[in-house]
Amino acid sequence: MIKFLDLKKINAQYQQELKEASNRVIDSGWYLLGQELSKFEENYANFCKTDYALGVANGLDALRLIFKAYIELGIMNEGDEIIVPANTYIASVLAISDNNLIPIFVEPNLQTYNLDSSIIEKYITSKTKGVLTVHLYGQISIDNRMLEICKKHNLKLIEDGAQSHGATFKDKVSGAIGDVGAHSFYPGKNLGALGDAGAVTTDDKDLYSTIKALRNYGSHKKYENLYQGLNSRLDEIQAAFLNVKLKYIEKDIAGRRAVADYYLKNINNSNIILPNLENQNSHVWHLFVIRTKKREELQEYLLKEGVQTLVHYPIPPHKQIAYKEFNNLSYVITESIHNEVISLPISAVLNIEDIEKIVTVINKW
Ligand SMILES: *Cc1c(COP(=O)(O)O)cnc(C)c1O
Q: 148 in helix, strand or coil?
């Protein structure tokens, strides 16, 4: 069976260094907000080319903390509206509603599956304070038009970069294109910890210092609290693992691009729609997502042939039981995407025989 994602094989590549890193933390006697985290924040800010990076507990918290900070800073207020793609993972929406902000869903572009900047303006009201754009599947979702709209209407542009570490738009890296970026290092992400972890990146000093306090009980100084904060810190041991894995992220991206390139050149089946990409640098292929009208049939067939696949995602946020208040809304493009997508295995540790087999099997279908 070709696994959808082989995390054990991915981390085995760095086994020695990861073990040394964990020993270093165990022996240090210091497990939170220490040297490993400071080093990771410096390394990750360099990688994203931002002034600041802050480690937090996970990607959802990175997003929650960004909105919470904008509220503390008086830039957003409860009841304000945030534009978000209807076609996203639910975490993007949870961060908005958790802060008593209102998600305003907007359809994606069917070529990129990302927020369609050409229709955003129709959804802007006097209550709109931000756009949370998601670089879904690893492809940058920001274009010049989106940047202009945010500037014109004075909206904060927040990037959900959970799937797009290292993807670029012109000379800017994911998480540095808008006002602020949220990152996830969930084990299965392109830059994955060995547990939960996340980060916020920004050039905005006020936002940085607010989130820095908010992630630690709202405290900037021990036992003094500026805000009603959260406990959302990135553990030293995860920071140490991430310091190891960050060194190899470019190699990982190159490996993913090679697999994607092979799929794009060799998959040839009229029942399948392949992903479109604007340019090579804008996509880091967290997921390789194809579309077909007969998704269930293809998934079952591939499983029988020994290829494990997943669906990202089967139910859009507005159709989830958790969001009953939005269940009556209809987003035709989003819903058709959710009915037709299927993700093929992709990673830098997939061997060439497996990649060839996947292509052969799909072309025979
Ligand atoms: C994974 C993911 C998140 C949440 O990250 P966690 O670290 O799992 O909390 C948010 N948004 C998107 C698009 C994701 O893929």
A: helix
Closest CA relative to residue 200, chosen from 298, 78, 80, 67: 67
Tell me the CA–centroid distance for residue 112 and ligand 1, in Å: 19
Q: How far apart, in whole angstroms, are the C-alpha atoms of residue 287 and residue 2?
A: 16
Alpha carbon of 88 to ligand 1 centroid (Å): 10
Query: Strands 81-85 and 128-134: what pairing?
Result: parallel
- CB of 83 sitting under 6 A from ligand 1: no
Three-state secondary structure call for residue 363: helix
Contact 235, 195 (CB under 8 A): yes
pTM of the model: 0.98
Query: Is 58:199 a contact under the CB 8 Å cutoff?
Result: no
CA distance linking residue 313 with residue 90, whole number of Å: 9
Atom of ligand 1 nearest to the CA of 198: 7
> What atom of ligand 1 comes closest to residue 184's alpha carbon?
7
CA 250 – ligand 1 centroid, Å: 21
Q: Which two tokens stand for residue 63?
A: 């997003």
How many angstroms separate the CA atoms of 10 and 282, rounded?
23
The tens digit of pLDDT for each residue in 244-294 reads 999 999 999 999 999 999 999 999 999 999 999 878 889 999 999 999 999
Please give the Cα distance from 58 to 233 (Å, whole number). Answer: 9
pLDDT at 84 over 90: yes
